[in-house]
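Hi there,

I know you've been waiting on this one. I reran it after we fixed the sequence typo, so this is the corrected version. Both the input and the resulting structure follow.
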Amino acid sequence: MEQEIFNWAVAVSGCLGGWVLKTIWDSLKDLQATDIKLSERVNEIDVLVAGRYVTRDEMNRSIDKIFAKLDQISGQLSEKADR
């Protein structure tokens, strides 16, 4: 009789342990799938951001406009100082 109770206890604990391990395994698989999806989204954002850099020509044109405006302001200040 004692052996039968022991066998039942081992069987029940084995079933519960197996269920817990399966639950943990499934949760781990779900987390891995979610991690892959998030990595892909981060990579898409990285590509989007990297594609939006200012080109050298655009930067040079902008700087030229700024310097032209500064030269104009400097000329106007020189005229004011001469008066």
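Quick highlight: The chain has a mean pLDDT of 89.

Best,
R. S.
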